[in-house]
Amino acid sequence: xxxxxxxxxxxxxxxxxxxxxxxxxxxxxxxxxxxxxxxxxxxxxxxxxxxxxxxxxxxxxxxxxxxxxxxxxxxxxxxxxxxxxxxxxxxxxxxxxxxxxxxxxxxxxxxxxxxxxxxxxxxxxxxxxxxxxxxxxxxxxxxxxxxxxxxxxxxxxxxxxxxxxxxxxxxxxxxxxxxxxxxxxxxxxxxxxxxxxxxxxxxxxxxxxxxxxxxxxxxxxxxxxxxxxxxxxxxxxxxxxxxxxxxxxxxxxxxxxxxxxxxxxxxxxxxxxxxxxxxxxxxxxxxxxxxxxxxxxxxxxxxxxxxxxxxxxxxxxxxxxxxxxxxxxxxxxxxxxxxxxxxxxxxxxxxxxxxxxxxxxxxxxxxxxxxx
Amino acid sequence: xxxxxxxxxxxxxxxxxxxxxxxxxxxxxxxxxxxxxxxxxxxxxxxxxxxxxxxxxxxxxxxxxxxxxxxxxxxxxxxxxxxxxxxxxxxxxxxxxxxxxxxxxxxxxxxxxxxxxxxxxxxxxxxxxxxxxxxxxxxxxxxxxxxxxxxxxxxxxxxxxxxxxxxxxxxxxxxxxxxxxxxxxxxxxxxxxxxxxxxxxxxxxxxxxxxxxxxxxxxxxxxxxxxxxxxxxxxxxxxxxxxxxxxxxxxxxxxxxxxxxxxxxxxxxxxxxxxxxxxxxxxxxxxxxxxxxxxx
Amino acid sequence: xxxxxxxxxxxxxxxxxxxxxxxxxxxxxxxxxxxxxxxxxxxxxxxxxxxxxxxxxxxxxxxxxxxxxxxxxxxxxxxxxxxxxxxxxxxxxxx
Lengths: 372, 296, 95
Prior knowledge:
The complex is a heterotrimer.
Chain A: H1 7-13, H2 23-35, H3 39-49, H4 57-87, E1 95-98, H5 99-105, E2 119-122, H6 128-137, E3 140-142, H7 147-156, E4 163-165, E5 171-175, H8 189-194, E6 197-198, E7 205-207, H9 210-224, H10 230-244, H11 248-260, H12 264-278, H13 284-294, H14 298-311, H15 324-339, H16 342-358
Parallel strand pairs in A: 1-7, 2-5
Antiparallel strand pairs in A: 1-2, 3-4, 4-5, 6-7
Chain B: H1 4-9, E1 13-17, E2 20-26, H2 29-39, E3 44-45, E4 53-59, H3 64-67, E5 70-75, E6 84-85, H4 89-104, E7 108-118, E8 121-126, H5 133-141, E9 146-149, E10 152-156, E11 162-163, E12 169-172, H6 174-182, E13 192-195, E14 198-203, H7 207-211, E15 218-227, E16 234-237, H8 240-250, H9 258-271, E17 273-279, H10 282-290
Parallel strand pairs in B: 2-4, 8-15, 15-17
Antiparallel strand pairs in B: 1-2, 1-3, 4-5, 5-6, 7-8, 7-9, 7-10, 10-11, 12-14, 13-14, 16-17
Helix pairs in contact in B: 8-9
Chain C: E1 6-9, E2 15-20, E3 23-28, E4 33-37, H1 39-50, E5 53-54, H2 55-66, H3 72-87, E6 91-93
Antiparallel strand pairs in C: 1-5, 1-6, 2-3, 3-4
Helix pairs in contact in C: 1-2, 1-3, 2-3
């Protein structure tokens, strides 16, 4: 097996490798995968390759345990989607699931063995207040009571402060756009809503169009997020590209749609790093067109390359080199820089840094365990 | 005595406890002492290709450590808890390991309960804190019952058997001296005071429990113990439906296991006789446990 | 009083039963919730799993299965059971 820090990416792009790992390599792989929420995905891939039964018992114990977590989460997501549909039954406009919730509802390949933290959906901005009222009526409550946080979300972000169900504890993020109002790119939400598709089995639950699902995932990873789940998100993208890419029509329209939504840069990065890290097959002509549309100037391109290559590895001691912490910090600053102008950014990050000390290390929710 | 402290402070020690191999690294003296006192009979290794849990216990860096030294528990780089005073390093290892098992292992239905065994059949003692579950468990395992666990009942979803995880028994406050007097031959780790549970000490698992850690048992009784000062020992039959709800409530991963979790719990209820047990004297309790009849 | 409304098990609900003595424990697979029911409530749910029916029919069926008089207090029990079951999202009625 190649370099230890590439172990996880190698096994995801070539799952047949899983059948030949030594016990020591499994030790590394399980630890790296657990750190970046990809352990259930590895369990799924091991199952698909058919070698699951031949794996050592201790490996199987961790893989099946992780698989059960993902399986339960998918159940919870399906249950909550149906609760959201009930809560918003009087809404005239469509409810559009985003990210993980969309993958589960539409049964797309990234849903297999995926870990969730919340459920995201989008509604037209004009209906946002009404949606919030309906959700409150059905037991969801705003989570950020701090006045600054409330203002931060409502004024500058593309979503309401996350809402949590008082009984079940599930968290939903309600968006009206896929990027903040203050962000440097402005994909038009109306254009996104024009192309949505209804999910089978629901009255008023939709997903974005196939191409827009990919562009949103790309935008989330390379323009919006802090890359804390970088590799997991790249695995989503890879699975989407492989799945939708079976149809030529998808590739024919992808770059043009990115141009229309001003999302050339994230698309360029996505295609580049998917094929680099996970060997995602992308037609040459599409790679070239995405480059023409979204490749940054050489200096930036080089710095981003150095940073992304590290940040897309598991954040685990077996994968770090001397530049990794700086790379992660640069990308953290970048993600916020892309979200809002500097005069808003600096006070915001300062505030975040100060607050962090107050609420460190949340205890995982486990009832009654002997915990310190 | 042995080289645990060098090994723990260096590449770490691999300890086999029940079905799990724990890789522990720590330069803290009280951790090495605790491991030496309480874990010397477990299979341990200097090198292993695979461990289920990679755990570090380290002092917290920074200026504060000069005034008030603290210990931090790390599960392979992930920090699930806030640091504790350095003195609590060994109890933190035990609590943290429970957390690792309950959060990551779902091939078992895991219930917050003590489990003890005799003649191949086991009793599950689920109970809220303060019910005297650990005290009763410590007494029973010093009078011929085999220790499975004082905290985590593990019902294997594959074999449908209870599986031992024999680790030191965590005793608190008055229970420490009570058991020290009741079983003078029992080996205890250091007492640590001022934890958020008061004073705690760990009692070494009896040697036989450690040696037979691979032997599973069939579940036969579910007994909810309740210590009540001055009370006569009373063993009363308990409604099964209610016991089913209580087990679900006391399980760490029942909800995560979904249908499989429910089927496992209802199988336990089907197979076991369910009781409420009130007691004040440990000898009375031993007598009643020794006289338990097998379910029909 | 019974008003002819039809009750049924809510859409998406999947139920696994266990009964011990006179009590039932029910696992509902869509929500993952577990509930413990007394004899009448358990019987109401069991009947609704079999087929949709109105309150009067329910009272009569229960009177037959549990061998209790179909009197006013049984109707009241059934009504309370339906309130509890619909509160838990397990059953619903046509508007």
